[in-house]
Amino acid sequence: MEVAQRLVRSVMRAFYTTQEILVIDALVIHSALLDLDLSYLLKINIKDLHKLCASLRDARFLVVHSRPEMLEGKTRPISRTYYYIDYRQTIDAIKWRVHKTDKDMQVHAHPVDETKEYTCPRCSAQWTQMEVLDTFSPQGFHCGRCNALLELSKEQEAPGHQQLSRMNNQFKFMTDLLQQIDSMVIPECTFENAIQHARPIERESTHEVQQSIPLEYSIHNKPSAVKGLADTGPKTMQVTISDGNDEQETLESRKRKERLAAENALPSWITNSSVPTTAAGAAASRGVEEEEDDRPAKKIKSEVKLEGGDDDDEDDMIFEDVGPTTKKVKVEAGAGEEEEDDIDFEDVV
């Protein structure tokens, strides 16, 4: 474990900022820290600490763990955030970055053109081994331009190889530690192990934090419903399979439909109208309406006949229908006619 801790610290000092280095050093020393305690040690704001640890979490240098805890005098738990280092995960991340950097540098180390291996001392021309194969003699290869004896040029290192060599020298401390780690077994790093080996922090009296008690929280005792509500769901389920021709099932279905129809029926004060709809009531109402319609017509007809005065039989029939009042009118009309006849006779004489 000491070799893994030394590797993590060395990588942080080589590639990261001062605040990030302090965060990892504090976690290496204390094994696991609450976010409030880590903020107190680094003397930075809690929001800035969360932002700083988020970048280290993405780089796989630390792990964030949250658990519910109960404060003294409180009835509802709160969520606490802890930080610790998973050394297996961090070592794998370092190996992957070293491998990726080495592959990127090897791409630039390969030469684009073929190296000129032979140089002419007279005309300074450079030739490849394939170009001078046909000019071979017992003394050696000759220049194809001036026929001088060629000399083997000194080996020149390409710029890509120089960068690769420089990188290998700079990463030597990491590769050596990784080789040592490969020969040993790194124990599993979980939050339970880290919190058990955590070193407490001594705070000043003016910066004390209210103590909290962790709750037993797991998947098995996780509440499945709102607290205070009873579980009223079905406990068992029964499945019945039938061919659909059972008379008992048909009868039960009919009874169930009738019961539902009776339950959903409208009350009588909605279905029945307040206007009488019986046969006797309808006939009586029609008779009253006919009498009211006939009376004005008879009166009008009697008045028309009185003005004409030609047909006595029809007048008698009408008067009988109308009543005693019209008979009196007829008698008065007859007396008036007799008086007129007497007057006419007197004038003639």
Give an overview in words.
The protein has about 350 residues and is of the alpha+beta class. Helices cover about 55% and strands about 10% of the residues. It contains 13 helices and nine strands. The protein has helices at about 1-15, 20-30, 35-40, 45-60, 85-110, 160-170, 170-180, 190-195, 245-265, 270, 280-310, 310-320, 325-349, and strands at about 30-35, 65-70, 80-85, 120, 125, 135, 140, 150, 210-215. It has a four-stranded antiparallel β-sheet. The protein has a three-stranded antiparallel β-sheet with strand order 5-4-8, with no helix packed on it. Strand 2 (about 65-70) and strand 3 (about 80-85) form a beta hairpin. The radius of gyration is 60 Å and the shape is elongated. The termini are far apart. Mean pLDDT is about 75; it is low at about 215-220, about 225, about 295-310, about 315-330 and about 345-349.
Quick structural summary:
Helices cover 54% and strands 9% of the residues. The chain has helices at residues 2-15, 18-30, 35-42, 46-58, 87-109, 159-170, 172-182, 191-196, 247-263, 268-271, 279-308, 312-322, 324-348, and strands at 32-34, 63-71, 78-84, 118-119, 126-127, 136-137, 140-141, 151-152, 212-214. The strands form three sheets. Strands 1-3-2-9 form a four-stranded antiparallel β-sheet. A three-stranded antiparallel β-sheet has the order 5-4-8, with no helix packed on it.
